[in-house]
Structures are given as C-alpha cells and as structure tokens.
Design a protein that fits this description.
alpha/beta, Rossmann fold, 7-stranded mixed sheet, 7 helices, globular
Length: 207
C-alpha cells in the first residue's frame, strides 16, 4: 500500500493491515464475481482505494457521524472510508445482491465493526444520515432526488450535511441546478497520478 501510506502517513498499524488485506480479498472475490473489471484488479490501490480516500482529503468526519454509501457495489467508497474513520458509522447499500455480499464478507474479514451492509434500493431506506457518499452511481440530480429524504437535520461536522460523490469528466450540466450549494474539486489537487486527471469530487449541501 505504498501510495496510501504516502498520502496518509498517520495510519495506525491496524489500518495498514486492513488496507493490505484488501488486495488478496478482492482478487479472490473477483475470480468468482466480476466486482472490479478484471483488467483493473491490479490497479486496486490507486483506482479504487485511493480514489475512495479522496473524500478523506476533502473532509475529516467527526466521530459519531452517520454516512450512507449509495450503490456501494463491492464496497467503494465505503470500505476504505470505514477503515480510515473507525469512529464513524457507515451503511453500505446496493441493489445488486451478489456485489453487496462481497462488501459484507470483506468488511467482516478485516474486522470492520463500524459497517452495516444492506441489500436494498436507496428509495427503500428511510433512516437519516449526515452525509451520503457515492462513486459514479447515478447522475447528480437523480442522486439528490432519491437521497434528500435521508439527510439529517442535526449538524456535527465542519461542512453542512449533504452529498459527497466521486465522478469523472465534464460535470457542468449535472452541477448546474445545484451550483449555488455545490463545490467541485479536481482530484489531481490531491493526487498527481494520471488516473486522477479527469476525476472530480462533488459536494452538495442539502441542509
């Protein structure tokens, strides 16, 4: 986990061990279920773990924060964030059962006690959260529409409650309806690797 240790040098020994265990776990699962593109599994650290941790560069969640990862698939960005923020509670949600099973098993294997995994559509989830996170799961207007009901009114972080999503390409049209309450960050600001040149972090305040 060379890159992760470079950008996040204060990880505990346990966190380092948890991150290091992910490569083998996802390789094993990918041989059974195509959770990550087979040609991309060798790039797990940069393309999936570090990409997910861009959110940790943008905000340091307060202990006790409640977060829902919508469309988590095999556990991104939720599992890397749950490792990084062990005192924050995460719900990993996905409508595809075989992918959510991977996320559930990986979380158990590495001993994540701050993760709940649920096989459901986001429209069915009624609980409240301080933040919604996602990684290229749906267009931003759709994500806002289906998760606005899940945003808690109680504030406990430096940023108002809302959505933080990881996306790529030109997002001008997606962001336009929310331009007065949105922030767009080029991930190349955090990570110089070529993969991040077209990647963005979008934050939308919904409280």
């Amino acid at each position: 986990m060379k890159e992760i240790n470079t950008y996040f040098p204060t990880l505990t020994t346990l966190q380092q061990q948890q991150f290091e265990a992910l490569q083998g776990l996802y390789e094993d699962w990918n041989a059974k279920i195509n959770v990550i593109s087979r040609k991309d599994i060798g790039n797990l650290e940069v393309h999936h773990l570090l990409h997910s941790l861009a959110i940790a560069k943008y905000i340091s969640f307060t202990p006790g924060t409640q977060i829902m990862d919508v469309g988590t698939g095999g556990g991104f960005p939720g599992i890397p964030l749950a490792i990084f923020f062990p005192e924050v509670q995460f719900l990993l949600l996905d409508s595809i059962g075989k992918k959510i099973k991977v996320a559930e098993t990986v979380a158990k294997e590495i001993g994540l006690n701050n993760v709940e995994v649920k096989h459901a559509r986001v429209e069915e989830e009624k609980r409240k959260f301080h933040f919604i996170v996602s990684r290229a799961v749906m267009p931003l207007p759709d994500l806002v529409k289906v998760t606005r009901k899940n945003i808690a009114t109680e504030q406990m972080n430096a940023l108002p409650n809302g959505i933080i999503c990881l996306k790529g390409g030109d997002l001008t049209a997606e962001i336009h309806p929310f331009r007065k309450m949105a922030d767009e960050i080029a991930l190349s600001t955090y990570f110089p690797e070529p993969f991040f040149q077209t990647k963005k972090l979008i934050y939308v305040s919904l409280s």
